[in-house]
Amino acid sequence: MNLFLNTNVILYFLGGDKKIIKLISSANCLVTSFISEIELFSYDVNEQEAQSIKEFLDKIEILYPDKETVKKTVEIRKNTHLKIPDAIIAAQAQQINFILATADKEILDKVEDIPTIDPYEN
User: Fold this and answer.
1) Confidence of residue 63 (pLDDT cuts 50, 70, 90)
2) Is residue 119 within 8 Å of 20, Cβ to Cβ?
3) Which of 23, 83, 86, 108 is deepest in the core (most CB within 10 A)?
4) Domain residue extents for the chain
5) What is the 8-class DSSP label of residue 28?
6) pLDDT digits over 18-52, tens only?
7) Half-sphere exposure at residue 77, Cβ-oriented, CA atoms within 13 angstroms
8) Distance, CA of 122 to CA of 120 (rounded, Å)
9) Domain 2-117 is classified in which CATH homologous superfamily?
10) Does residue 81 come out as left (phi exceeding 0), alpha (psi in the -120 to 50 range) or beta?
């Protein structure tokens, strides 16, 4: 299983959440968005937490936008009214055909044509 990690999933993983650890450990490939990179380093974290974030991100691929990302983001935003960062993340997951791992109920409820996984769903 190839997973595109939303910011909240990365935070829960770094926090030691057992369900998230199990999910991430079962993945073949992990990718996240530059949006998550920005969000993670924008939180008020101490030096040790910042180092943990850096070490995790160094182990996975981070996608940056291209013209196709912009087109897909606009389409998703118009169809779902998601916030722009969430629409970018959804667009990038769709572009590479990965499962979007997120605990964000708004994304899970509004995105229909992109495979998603809620790590807390039984």
Assistant:
1) very high
2) yes
3) 86
4) 2-117
5) S
6) 999 999 999 999 999 999 999 999 999 999 999 99
7) 14
8) 6
9) 5'-nuclease (3.40.50.1010)
10) left
